[in-house]
Amino acid sequence: MRQVSIETGITKHAEGSCMIRIGDTHVLCTATIEERVPPFIKGSGQGWVTAEYGMLPRSTTSRMRREASAGKQGGRTVEIQRLIGRALRAGVDRNALGERQITVDCDVIQADGGTRCASITGGWVALRLAVNKLMKTGDVVTDPLVDPVAAVSCGIYAGQPVLDLDYPEDSEAGVDGNFIMTGSGRLIEVQMSAEGATYSRDEMNKLLDLAEKGVSELVAAQKAATGA
């Protein structure tokens, strides 16, 4: 793993917030609690966790156009924020959350590979802090967060399995993948593909072993940041 730091309480108004830094990838994550849910679960007694994701114009080496100025989100953005939302929901007991929604916003300040993984990992911290407030006020009695959720990238770079790819490694890796897991080691989602080179079952297992190591380190950092 590159150096990991998670600083909490970054913003004044959000119910939960953190700045997660993994190497030179920096993402601001905030969680907002709303006493409403989407229409498709209204009246069910269940809560909902969703996410939005975006990259600032100079988070990359050259300026990106704001998606708002284009009038719509790009396909990559939509795919990533859906991924973040369903990843975080995998660690939530939605019945215990009650009929309310928590929106996790992930804004990439600086990108150097692994922004979706950093967003998921930091998003869980922001979510944890927001839920802590609900429990402190008594609005939620049973902790709805059943297991931490974290994510890490792995790939085969220069013929070797590598954990936590930075941008140069990611752009040249023959195989790369994103591994999303719970703190107890359960898999939520694996996005893995060959880009210029195929991979064997044995190589996939080696990357999974690396991912388990990386996620365990990230979960330890999450717990340290939230006092869990």
From TrEMBL:
GO molecular function: 3'-5'-RNA exonuclease activity; tRNA binding; tRNA nucleotidyltransferase activity
Pfam family, one: RNase_PH_C
Top-level class of the enzyme under EC nomenclature: transferase
GO terms, biological process: rRNA 3'-end processing; rRNA catabolic process; tRNA processing
Catalytic activity: tRNA(n+1) + phosphate = tRNA(n) + a ribonucleoside 5'-diphosphate
Binding site for phosphate: 76, 114-116
Gene3D superfamilies xref list: GHMP Kinase, N-terminal domain
Record bears the keyword Cytoplasm: no
Keyword Repressor: no
EC number: 2.7.7.56
Domain Exoribonuclease phosphorolytic: 1-130, 147-214
Keyword annotations of the record: Nucleotidyltransferase, RNA-binding, rRNA processing, Transferase, tRNA processing, tRNA-binding
CDD domains linked to this entry: RNase_PH_bact
PANTHER family: EXOSOME COMPLEX COMPONENT, EXOSOME COMPLEX COMPONENT RRP41
NCBIfam families: RNasePH
Primary role: Phosphorolytic 3'-5' exoribonuclease that plays an important role in tRNA 3'-end maturation. Removes nucleotide residues following the 3'-CCA terminus of tRNAs; can also add nucleotides to the ends of RNA molecules by using nucleoside diphosphates as substrates, but this may not be physiologically important. Probably plays a role in initiation of 16S rRNA degradation (leading to ribosome degradation) during starvation.
Recorded family membership: Belongs to the RNase PH family.
Subunit note: Homohexameric ring arranged as a trimer of dimers.
Entry protein name: Ribonuclease PH
